[in-house]
Amino acid sequence: MSPALLAFFIGSVFFLSTLLTALLRRYAFTRGLLDHPNIRSSHTETTPKGGGAGIVITLILAITILAVCGIMALDVFVVLAGGGAVVAMVGWWDDHGHVAVGIRLGLHALAAGWALWRLGGMSALNIGLASWDLGWVGHILALVALVWLINLYNFMDGIDGLAGAEAVFAATCSGLFLSLARVPGLALASWTLAGSVAGFLVWNWPPARVFMGDVGSGFLGFVFGVMLLVSVRQGSLPIWFWPILLGTFLVDATVTLLRRVIRGSRWYEAHRRHAYQHAARRWGHLRVTVGVSVLNMVWLAPLAWVAWRWPSASFGVMLAALAPLVAAAFHLRAGERSA
């Protein structure tokens, strides 16, 4: 695809996503699909939700075009569109009412398991120069990781602009490295994702006029999980590249979850004990979203490049990249009650 055609394609994706988000915002007001402030929320104004459906629709339409044109592999398209639609529909259902935790996790596991089966799973794990074949244990660990990524992204969608900005960063960077690795189909899918989320961000940037909702956040987690799986199986990106790229979300969500479990809290209930939520109460949504974006660009992006350039060192690079983020999460009292 020529640069001019690429720019036109991504620009069209951006425009469609912006338009769909506006229409979904109107729909939310009409149907009373509103997020009201409560003791567990980080916002103070009643705001429509479910705008992330615009991301879902735009991306699936775009990758359908890529698949029809032969740019994207059919298996990858089927998994992204099919599994992604299941995860998005669960979120859309939850946005309109309440889905029991067991049902939600069960459907997430079903979509994740089907994706792993369709793409061949992930039984081998590379650490440094060594490669371990974990067999069926590796497939189970991959299933748990993919389900966690779906829910992790949902947990981190709690303040204006943050989940969208993180997705634009991760999709843009992964698209660049996939392009350098000569995987044009997946690279274009990543940039398409960045364009669709950027269109949503027009409405979600602080102060947000619409929220993403579970329909969008869970879908984004699933898409990044599939991209990880495909890129690692193709050998285009090392597995440890992805925890670096998504480091701010991975660390905050994981540290918060573990500390809540240790303290005996109901981890699956809504709360505002994440590090980013504590930070937002001190400095505001805009400063935190911009701050995380700057951290991603000046700290994580260069280290992701190092991990990509020297795959044998990627595990150590990941540890070095995430260590200060873990320290920051504890400093910001991730998993603790607000003062």
Describe the structure.
The structure is a single chain. The protein has 339 residues and is mainly alpha-helical. It is globular. It has a domain at 3-236. Helix 6 runs parallel beside helix 12 (285-309). A two-stranded antiparallel sheet has the order 1-2. Strands 3-4 form a two-stranded antiparallel ribbon. It starts with a helix and ends in an 8-residue tail after the last helix. The chain contains 13 helices and 4 strands. Helices cover 71% and strands 4% of the residues.
Strand content: under 5%
Shape type: globular
Spatial ordering of strands, largest sheet: 1-2
Radius of gyration: 19 Å
Order of helices and strands: HEEHHHEEHHHHHHHHH
End-to-end C-alpha gap:
53 Å
Provide the structure class. mainly alpha
Which blocks of ≥5 consecutive residues have pLDDT under 50?
none
Assign a percent range to the helix content: over 70%
Tell how many strands the DSSP assignment holds. 4
